[in-house]
């Protein structure tokens, strides 16, 4: 179930022999833990977590954090937010770093065994599923303190099926159309706002001998982003939510319209997507300029290497439907959750309250090499990179923010046996009988056991 | 050939005379001491225990789980029995199932007909003590030492559409002209089979080479004196003599084909033309939400398919021992 930022890159590192590591946080030695709270209480009165009395904070003790961020940049960012919150709360936070893919594959056994108190994870159905299995603790009390930093959309993404909150969102990244500014300038291309403009531009690029849209789906998840955006543009955000949640049917003619539109646009996409990795597609667009545009999460900018500053992006064009005003996009949210039986719930909750503050979020995203942006609208964007500023702008203008197909839908449906395989089958043979194709998807969905 | 009957007759000691010490006679009829018995008991018990714990119990558990619906979370009481539903879904609804069966069969046939005979052919060539035979042996055996994960990575570099070696050599990197080696479902199984063969050939070659070295050179000389050609010598004399090695290689080929997994999974998790029974099991069981029951049903199918050749092999092996 690869789908997270750079999952494929990580899998290769996994092959290189990277296995589970554990890192002991030394930021808070025993001495530091007792002196930190008083300093925190005076230094940052704005922080919700720091408003706890110093004496209470001193008694918080040690809590543990299980992190799936084994790559260098995000690992350092997790450490940065942990250090910040250790200072703010006075709790000692021990980070256990796990290899990314291993952690994701073993998450259910991990949560059933002896998990860390706090676990780094994803919003939407990905957290909802484990909440429904009773593997997480509800944190409504945390949310009463942190609601002031959040939006209703962020809260919705953090709720379990029972209406209780189980997740604290920290950062996210939008799915956008990336391009090289210099290429657009040189060829006189302008950013398309509507489907008609998009197609005209695509035709022009083709006559210039450039592939309009780079595309690689060997990893199975990139095509989900394309499906999501077309679906939300054509059928609206609420339909996306219903379809992912199982209340709408895949055999609905509305879904067929999405695939028909996609089939119509496929001549503008790079051919042979099922045999190309997303990194190779990124290289074609952002390094070699063989393709002009690339629809992916902003994390793809990393693939541009030294050309990163020349990469610009814009939201997917509007399709001229009634849902244009929604301007919905995919922007997957990452954050933290609390395991079912935390050893030190007080310290863990103090930490969760702290990571929700705009200051803590900014600490995370301004760590070196992070392209995501803080979820809180109150976050201070002055230290953002150009990419982050542009991301924040896109997100601000988006009326509705979806997670992603494999985060909004149940994992066994989104995985290789389900939508990954179905979407690749569509890309391999886009002219197949769509009614039969979509009927097959719905039948597969119906065979899945109920999610208790 | 020696004559066992006369020889054993020589070695049988004369029948004990009337005045023998009874205790010595008793010892001859039960030649094991208590220590021997203990050692034997332990030597039988430990492997039996290991087989039961690590093979039999999991196998039986898989078969039982294949009749259930379970997401792997919660205690045994959260397992629901649903009868044959997993199997009927597998056959009627689960699209990758039949492709997986046929791909496993293609894999097996390809290995039996192409990879294994080619490895044997190379072994025969290298057995001729041609110049530089060590270098060839090393080069051909190298892929066997590499892990399949690394082999998958190497071949992805060769098959990549724009940057790949193969398309660049063929001049087929432009849009509209590309060969999608790993993306085209009619092509990717063969592309992966070539990569798998690259490894299998070296494996078979080394085993067969070892066998060839053990063949009594006198046999070849005799055949040559009788006027047999090179080819006749191999097929009429050497090949039949190497029967034990041939069976080992046959078994290895069947096992390697049935457990084919790594390369397909590395390329695209076994989707889009690369479905194999083993990747289907993994895709259903590993991950955040597992379908343990459904995955077990696929595993049971794989078990049934594997048991066939194993039984054939065991029956033949046992019959030989009796002879």
Question: What are the SSEs and their pairings?
Answer:
The complex is a heterodimer of chains A (452) and B (323).
Chain A: H1 7-15, H2 30-43, H3 54-58, E1 62-67, H4 72-89, E2 92-97, H5 100-105, H6 107-112, E3 118-122, H7 125-132, H8 140-146, H9 152-156, E4 167-172, E5 175-180, H10 181-187, H11 195-207, E6 211-214, H12 222-235, H13 237-245, H14 253-265, H15 278-286, E7 291-297, E8 311-314, E9 329-330, E10 333-338, H16 345-355, H17 358-365, E11 373-374, H18 386-397, E12 401-402, H19 405-408, H20 411-414, H21 419-428, H22 434-447
Parallel strand pairs in A: 1-2, 1-3, 6-7, 9-12
Antiparallel strand pairs in A: 3-10, 4-10, 4-11, 5-7, 5-8
Helix pairs in contact in A: 2-4, 4-16, 4-17, 8-16, 12-13, 12-14
Chain B: H1 4-11, H2 22-29, H3 34-65, E1 68-69, E2 80-81, H4 85-92, H5 97-126, H6 133-145, H7 148-159, H8 165-170, H9 188-214, H10 217-225, H11 230-241, H12 243-258, H13 262-268, H14 277-285, H15 292-322
Antiparallel strand pairs in B: 1-2
Helix pairs in contact in B: 3-15, 5-9, 5-12, 6-9, 7-9, 7-13, 9-12, 10-11, 12-15, 14-15
